[in-house]
Amino acid sequence: MPTPVESWAQQIRAGEVRAISRAITAIENHDPVADELLKTLFYSTGRASIIGITGAPGTGKSTLVDRLAAAYRRAGKTVGIIAVDPTSPFTGGAILGDRIRMQGHASDAGIFIRSMATRGFLGGLARATADVSLLLDAAGKEIILIETVGVGQDEVDIVRLADCTLVLLVPGLGDDVQNMKAGLMEIGHVFVINKSDREGADRLEQQVHAMLELAHESDGWRPAIARTIATETKGIDILIAEIAKFLARAKSSPEFYSREADHWSRRLVEMIESRLLEKLLGTKENKDRLSTLAVEVAQRKKDPYAAVDEILSCTGTH
User: Which of 60, 149, 251, 273 is deepest in the core (most CB within 10 A)?
Assistant: First the structure.
């Protein structure tokens, strides 16, 4: 007789939507059963292509994701979408939920969409997003699209787990290219100039080309630049071709497995940090102790280094 976790894992491998949804909720709630489930599912992963989509608010990420998903479905691919949303200050949940987004895909069994809030994840959103990506991979989704909320550090961390990262830009948002963080330029594999019918698209493309000339090439790959008008589904097929070209090159590269090892090295450190945080702050007693120590530090009754030592010694991790 299979155990309840094994039965649950079988349902997920079969692509059952309710089983997948329950599993994501368990991951979000830090339910210990989520780790057991992911352990069982891990050996069924590694087949999906994960595509990260990042860019400043207003660049049209959601529309582009919607059009990419539709194009992949027309090509017969199954798709998972993780939409990282701003957090409601009242409920802590995602403001722009999957009930609002991408309603045209609601009846398509080949697409699974889930919104995730940016706050409330002990150990970081990047780890939770990575776990959900593994889950969708095990559920048979061939393409996993991760849409981030902006271009901050959290977003850079999230798209690092992607096989291919799209950085969205639009003309007319100011000196975006000049102000781009070096990290974002380094993780971008394809730069997408969306809303490319706007004035200034040619100038923006020239700026991106100029910055890429100065950037270090990864494995001899010069990031591609693609123009799209996502609202009109223009340029989507060309973009998908650029993504496929990059993925084919990356997976045939001699460095592919060393990159995978580097990725898992970072992931393992993140998981260790998350476990330690849960151990340190996962109980009400420890949270109360932290609050008390924070007040004492704020009032200069205790120094922060002694406070940290006290927390660590009380939990046996000093």
Answer: 149
